[in-house]
From TrEMBL:
<dbReference type="InterPro" id="IPR036164">
    <property type="entry name" value="bL21-like_sf"/>
</dbReference>
<dbReference type="GO" id="GO:1990904">
    <property type="term" value="C:ribonucleoprotein complex"/>
</dbReference>
<dbReference type="GO" id="GO:0005840">
    <property type="term" value="C:ribosome"/>
</dbReference>
<dbReference type="InterPro" id="IPR018258">
    <property type="entry name" value="Ribosomal_bL21_CS"/>
</dbReference>
<keyword id="KW-0694">RNA-binding</keyword>
<keyword id="KW-0687">Ribonucleoprotein</keyword>
<dbReference type="InterPro" id="IPR001787">
    <property type="entry name" value="Ribosomal_bL21"/>
</dbReference>
<comment type="subunit">
    <text>Part of the 50S ribosomal subunit. Contacts protein L20.</text>
</comment>
<dbReference type="GO" id="GO:0006412">
    <property type="term" value="P:translation"/>
</dbReference>
<protein>
    <recommendedName>
        <fullName>Large ribosomal subunit protein bL21</fullName>
    </recommendedName>
</protein>
<dbReference type="GO" id="GO:0005737">
    <property type="term" value="C:cytoplasm"/>
</dbReference>
<dbReference type="InterPro" id="IPR028909">
    <property type="entry name" value="bL21-like"/>
</dbReference>
<dbReference type="GO" id="GO:0003735">
    <property type="term" value="F:structural constituent of ribosome"/>
</dbReference>
<comment type="similarity">
    <text>Belongs to the bacterial ribosomal protein bL21 family.</text>
</comment>
<keyword id="KW-0689">Ribosomal protein</keyword>
<dbReference type="Pfam" id="PF00829">
    <property type="entry name" value="Ribosomal_L21p"/>
</dbReference>
<comment type="function">
    <text>This protein binds to 23S rRNA in the presence of protein L20.</text>
</comment>
Length: 108
């Protein structure tokens, strides 16, 4: 069984027990979070596609960590103009573990 859900304007394909990095969510480590914007749920019995979202579907996940990615370096340089600019950026992310995906029921 797998599902596709949307959070932070990105879509993720997950299975139960999977650990993924998503855009930062302001919830403490150890708490659970529900994702209701589910686009697709597939199991052995059926395939349920939302239009755009499945109304009663939900994914429950546990927040494992709140972290920062590696620093990326941004360099702007114009030759022969005595111009160069350096900048860095670290993107925040949340690590979650998928606990359960609601069963695919065609009666939704």
């Amino acid at each position: 069984m797998y599902a596709v859900f949307q959070t932070g304007s990105k879509q993720y394909r997950v299975v139960e027990g999977q650990v993924i990095h998503i855009e930062r969510i302001d919830i403490d480590v150890g708490n659970q979070v529900e994702f209701n914007q589910i686009l697709l749920i597939e199991s052995n019995e059926c395939l349920h596609i939302g239009g755009p979202f499945i109304k009663k579907g939900q994914i429950i996940a546990e927040i494992i960590a709140q972290s920062l990615n590696k620093k990326i370096k941004i360099i702007k340089f114009r030759r022969r103009k005595h111009f160069r600019k350096f900048q860095g950026h670290r993107q925040c992310f949340t690590t979650i573990k998928i606990i359960s995906i609601s069963n695919c029921n065609p009666n939704h």
